Amino acid sequence: MIVVSDSTTLIILFDLDRLDLLQNIFQKIYILKKVYEEITYKEDFCIPEFIETVEVNKSDILDYLEYYLDEGESEAIALALEKDLPLVIDEKKGRKIAKNLNIKILGLLGIVYLNIQKGFITKKEAKEFLETAVKNGYRISEKLMQEVLK
Predict the structure, then answer these.
(1) What is the value of pTM for the model shown?
(2) Are the C-beta atoms of residues 86 and 105 closer than 8 Å to each other?
(3) What pLDDT, in 10s, does the model give residues 28-37?
(4) Do residues 94 and 119 both lie within one domain?
(5) Residues 119 and 103 in one domain
(6) Do residues 103 and 139 share a domain?
């Protein structure tokens, strides 16, 4: 599966050294230049081969999105719409807009869930990972976390 990604999920997975959770389920991830800039703020960040930087075409929808969202989220949503691809995004406002545009969305919890379902990680490993993500500032509702882990 090929997806478009915003930066938040990539950053948390990189920070916790778990980009494998993406590579397990996606053959290719498209990111935009702005997202690339956001995730390479650390000197030691090396973009794996399965993540590809692409450009989005200027469009009315992109102009509209940039009015409501930051540049990275706007471009990611516009590219997902343009290429008819699912979108990895965790920010609430961006998710809501993407859903309204009928874009299939996936966040960190969805990625963890797919890794459990496909046998790449156990529920115990998933729980430990999500607890570490929370300790590192990632906000996850307890209810949603329990839903993923049941």
Answers:
(1) 0.90
(2) yes
(3) 999 998 888 8
(4) no
(5) no
(6) no
